[in-house]
């Protein structure tokens, strides 16, 4: 899973609303130098995860934040399998 | 056993209220089927409309009868016609096309409203049936359609000729900004929104006559620095997506980015103190709750209190169009 499908998958697992999630994830990717979600690889998301967590924490209660982070990490682990 | 009915009560009262989704869905589907478009050139019989739409005759009759019953179409001597609002807003021939607004309700909101009970119980946002770029496109086009009336009214209501630069926070695709800039030739503006929205705005504004006076900046109003150097700010259709703490935060951040004397326009469906009027705004509160998990339609009194907390002086509250109104404030 790469490109747009991976981006949509991360957004869905973030637990953020449809109108907030994509922009929030994209801003986090920008902060680690990824210009476009289509270009982002699982490692890029891992590097962006602290930024994503910070922004997710703004919207989610702590216990949900932890679960959502685990969900994203699980997706990234699967996505790395060729 | 005899059923006793309270006098003056229509036995169908709650059937009509509870079945309101039937009216809504039938209207949206009539629009998607192109019925109002096919009637744009004048009245048609059922057979003529069937030929034009290629829809099954009896099913088509059910839909157009419903539209007559809802006072969207007229029926005279066996010929169906758009009434004046349908011709102006749903036929594709008027100055304002509201079909994308109905598409937003039909394709995105309807599926989200199915989750209302879960949203209320869990406090989590509803998941739309369509995600990604398709969601963004339908959402942006629909919001543009619904906000156009308020946007034009705002541009016509306020003289911004003494202002140089306007910051539009969470401005979407610029639907409020464009009429304001068209009305004020010397005004320049910055449109600030999340990256996917800015990308759509870049495409949609490409051909706008005022494009060269709009700077597009992507960012998050809660986290990223707000662009500096503006003497007016617009926050339209934004506060209803968030809980009061977040609204206060964005008002404070906006105030910190402005000098004393700057004007702030907050356009929304502002409510009365009981949160029960306008009626449609009370229903929209459900939509906003589902969109973000914590949205609401807020009262003018709440807005006034938030402004006082964040360095703004309340100036006035003024109706714009339909249930949309504006709260105006000044930086102190």
Quick tags:
heterodimer, A: 82 residues, mainly alpha, 72% helix, B: 332 residues, alpha/beta, Arc Repressor Mutant, subunit A, Rossmann fold, 2 domains, 7-stranded mixed beta sheet
Q: What is the strand tally of chain A?
A: 0
Total number of domains of chain B:
2
Average residue pLDDT of chain A: 90
Order of helices and strands of chain A: HHHH
Task: Name the chain pair with the biggest interface and residue counts per chain.
Answer: A-B, 20 and 27 residues
Low-confidence stretches of chain A: none
Strand order of the largest sheet of chain B: 6-5-4-7-8-10-9
As for the number of domains of chain A, it is 1
Q: Please report the distance between the alpha carbons of the first and last residues of chain A.
A: 9 Å
By CATH, the topology of the largest domain in chain B is Rossmann fold
Structural class of chain A: mainly alpha
Strand content of the residues of chain A, in percent?
under 5%
As residue ranges, the low-confidence spans of chain B are: none
Question: Could you give a short description of this structure?
Answer:
The complex is a heterodimer of chains A (82) and B (332). Chain A has helices at 3-14, 21-31, 42-59, 62-79. Chain A is mostly helical.
Structure commentary:
The complex is a heterodimer of chains A (82) and B (332). Chain A has one domain. Chain A has four helices and no strands. The mean pLDDT of chain A is 90. With 332 residues, chain B is of the alpha/beta class. Chain B has two domains: 79 residues, Winged helix-like DNA-binding domain superfamily/Winged helix DNA-binding domain (Arc Repressor Mutant, subunit A), CATH 1.10.10; 223 residues, Rossmann fold, CATH 3.40.50. In chain B, 46% of the residues lie in helices and 19% in strands. A seven-stranded mixed sheet of chain B has the order 6-5-4-7-8-10-9. In chain B, a hairpin with a 2-residue loop joins strand 9 and strand 10. In chain B, helix 2 packs across helix 5, helix 7 crosses helix 9 and helix 9 packs parallel to helix 10. The longest helix of chain B has 26 residues. Chain B is globular. The mean pLDDT of chain B is 95. Chains A and B meet through helix 1, helix 2 and helix 3 of A and helix 9 and helix 11 of B.
